[in-house]
Amino acid sequence: MVENFIEKEINELKENGLFRELKNIKPLPEPNKAEINGIKALTFCSNDYLGLSRDPKVIEAGMKALKKYGTGSTASRYITGNNPLYEELETEIALLKKTKSAIVFSSGYLANIGTITALANKNTAIYADKLCHASIIDGCLLSSAKFFRFKHNDIDHLKSAVSINGNGTGIVLTEDLFSMDGDRAPVKEICSVAAEHNLTTIIDCAHSTGVLDASKTQIADIQMGTLSKAIGGLGGFIACSNELAEYIKNKARPLIYTTALPPAVLSSAIAAIRIIRGDKSHQKKLKANTKLLRKKISENGFIAMGDACSPIIPILIGNNKKALICSKKLLELGIYVPAIRSPSVPSNKARLRITVNAMHKTEEIEEFAYKLSKIKGFIQ
Ligand code: PLP
Predict the structure, then answer these.
(1) How far apart are CA 226 and CA 224, in angstroms?
(2) Which of 68, 89, 173, 332 is the most buried (most CB within 10 A)?
(3) Structure confidence by residue, pLDDT tens digits, 331-363
(4) To test the ligand 1 pocket, which listed residue (116, 202, 208, 228) has its Cβ within 8 A of the most ligand atoms?
């Protein structure tokens, strides 16, 4: 019975170009180089926007903690896992985000579902942008709140949803820099609609943290982020007031019922945030690389989606199978960019999600642009 169901589901995924297979990805010593299923390639898809996962100071900080404390944290933060490095890291995050408090979770996914389920219940109305990340959607569904999705970046649609459902306990959720589209939310306008209706705002800054100026999201009640992208490691966080932090520390089940992060991960994240706060050279290089890659993509006749400042540069393909072919052809040319398909993006909006980072060399960007032009026939 179950076998029949599984076979049918898998066949359907395959027919629709939606079947997912894990590739064998072996990072090579040079940044942005990897062996993908045995093929050596230049990667244009990592979220390590500043290249800090390979930074000597970040590695050294992790090694010191590894030697001092061992490999694991041995239990949840409420048992034996709350190493003093947590407090140090939370202080660094609060300084970065200019808030009174911060809480570190074991991943960004857990930070979103933990925070949303702690704040919402069946009497809450949640308004989330249509293109919000799966971890936000899952948090909303798990919370049993009344769940409304407003059209992407559409303030008028948000206003009308809020006015129909009235004031009361409610949450407005969006992303600062959208993970799959590379565009930015009108955070100021969203926060002012929320303030008018006494609603709490949560802004997911997973992709903007360390990449874009943080001042834009400081007006939100909660800035959520992750340590796994520009910070180069693993873990998630929220930055907020002391009062909210105290409440969430008591109510967020994914904070309470999971093992704390390994001390080495915490120590590396502290070092990475100190670099981000003290040295702007990585951001400058990222900005220059973003500008160059966007220019090269446009010169090749492609439409580079997203904001000019965004290192996430998707090229829309539409059809799933076509997107898979484009990704495969690029890999044959020694470039790795996976095809992103539903449910990560809406149906029929499959794309190549290209990302650039501070470690890409100018000649690698040029090589990428040249090879992208070679697969033009498959994209159009
Ligand atoms: N929020 C957004 C917008 C994301 O893109 C991601 C990760 O892809 C997450 C949250 C989850 O973060 P993490 O990968 O640290 O679990």
Answers:
(1) 7
(2) 173
(3) 999 999 999 999 999 999 999 999 999 999 999
(4) 228
Count how many Cα atoms sit within 13 Å of the Cα of residue 172 in the half-sphere of its side chain: 35
Closest protein CA for atom 5 of ligand 1: 179
| Tally of CB atoms within 10 A around 373 | 15
Q: Which pLDDT score, from 0 to 100, does residue 169 have? A: 79
114 C-beta closer than 6 A to ligand 1: no
Q: Looking at residue 1, what is its pLDDT?
A: 66
| 139 Cβ closer than 6 Å to some ligand 1 atom | no
Reported as a single tens digit per residue, the pLDDT across 79-95 is 999 999 999 999 999 99
Catalytic residues: 47, 133, 175, 179, 204, 207, 229
Residue 133 CA: which ligand 1 atom is closest?
A: 3
CA of 199 to the centre of ligand 1 (A): 23
For a mutational test of ligand 1's pocket, the pick from 226, 258, 345, i.e. the residue with the most ligand atoms closer than 8 A to its C-beta, is 226
